[in-house]
Write a structure and sequence with these properties.
252 residues
């Protein structure tokens, strides 16, 4: 039946009906259509509201395994003020709540590692801080900038005593073995001490140890360990200048 004919048929059925009867008929006949339209309108309204309320990111950092979640909001607010970020207009994200264990690798650990990979791939993470074990894992995956090209001369001189190094030759050889012998049970060569570049064939500084960081202590980060966390610039970060400010903030 053509749409025009269907409309005429419905009009004939409603002829002489009361307002209440017309409403009841409308609900019975168009109930599904009405629900679909209302749901679509609601969904569009939510989308428009989110678009209007969304803010661009000015900075994003991960302070992993720090257990500083209780003061994360204050941490973010304090750094935003330090960096001159207007949080009414921009997002300043510092995640001090997330955790990751390379030993257990539970479903939560796997989910987080996938989220982290997604953040790096979409340029959504600028700075990374973690314990040395986790940092080393991602450093071998080349997630961090070479500090020789990232730091200014003044910064390099200031932070060089605290550098975390990786051996580019060791990483290349390890990756080659894993590609050629993915199921090998032979013992793997152990990486050199990340604080000793003299023991490496091609040492590359990619991280900075943060011993006695007053700011991390202020926000109750890494309070249950004596090991110094390590800072790195994520290679795909969109806000390197703010990441440098974050490093200065943590080491002031």
């Amino acid at each position: 039946m053509a749409m025009r004919d269907e409309v005429k048929e419905q009009q004939q059925k409603l002829k002489g009906k009361s307002v209440r009867e017309k409403l009841e008929y409308f609900w019975d006949y168009y109930k599904v259509h009405t629900i679909v339209v209302l749901f679509a309108a609601f969904a569009i309204g939510i989308f428009i509201k989110d678009m209007m309320a969304s803010k661009d990111d000015a900075f994003s950092a991960l302070v992993l395994n720090s257990y500083g979640y209780e003061q994360q909001a204050d941490f973010q607010e304090d750094f935003a003020a330090y960096a001159g970020i207007d949080t009414k207009t921009y997002n300043c994200q510092i995640d001090a709540a997330s955790t990751l264990s390379l030993d257990a690798m539970t479903q939560l650990d796997l989910a987080f590692s996938q989220r982290l990979a997604g953040m790096v791939q979409t340029n959504a993470l600028d700075a990374f801080v973690s314990d040395a074990e986790i940092f080393g894992h991602y450093a071998e995956g080349m997630m961090f900038q070479d500090l020789r090209g990232e730091l200014s001369a003044e910064e390099y001189e200031k932070y060089e005593p605290y550098f975390y190094y990786v051996d580019a030759v060791f990483i290349e050889e390890k990756n080659r073995v894993q590609e050629e012998e993915p199921y090998s049970d032979s013992p793997q060569e152990t990486a050199a001490d990340p604080t000793d570049p003299s023991a490496m064939k091609d040492p590359v500084p990619v991280g900075i140890y943060l011993p006695d960081s007053a700011k991390l202590a202020q926000w109750n980060c890494y309070m249950n360990t004596e090991e110094a966390p390590v800072f790195g610039f994520v290679f795909s970060g969109k806000h390197p200048d703010t990441a440098h400010l974050f490093l200065a903030y943590l080491t002031e």
